[in-house]
Amino acid sequence: MTGKPEERRAVKVSKYLAKHLRHQPERLGITLDENGWVAIDTLLRATAAHGFGLTRAELDHVVTINDKQRFTIDGDRIRAAQGHTVAVDLDLPLATPPAYLYHGTVARNLDAIRAEGLRPMRRHHVHLSADRETATRVGARRGRPVVLPVDAAAMHGAGLVFRVSANGVWLTDSVPTRYIRFRG
Q: What mean pLDDT is reported for the chain?
């Protein structure tokens, strides 16, 4: 990993938090409430007890600088903005999407997407981006990115629901193939 030591540490902390606030809170001995929140003091004590000491100032810094705004702090609580595999209800309001949203993936997933549409897989929702650039970055995490436009206006018109997380990620239960614009 390149970058300054403090940048590397911030990435490490962000990944550690994502792992435990989205997927494995029990590994730290913490319990998320029904909406995914945990008291910051509880989280900090748990990280220290598991050999990953973290101060409140460092936590605040990582939450603030995270380019994807993966975490939300509300007073003395923190949660992951979305992407959970553990059962939580983020209690996000319904939202009217823009005409098109975008999904970043890689070519090896296209046959399955053509056959089944977009499914949440291990997560609770399909994640969509409001712009091609963000979807490109998402897809690039797994290889050469492919960006699929999604006719969100048509989906919404057909009664499918959307929510948008605090960091601008659009969430829906699934995207049927008929709403995905494949090229070629």
A: 92
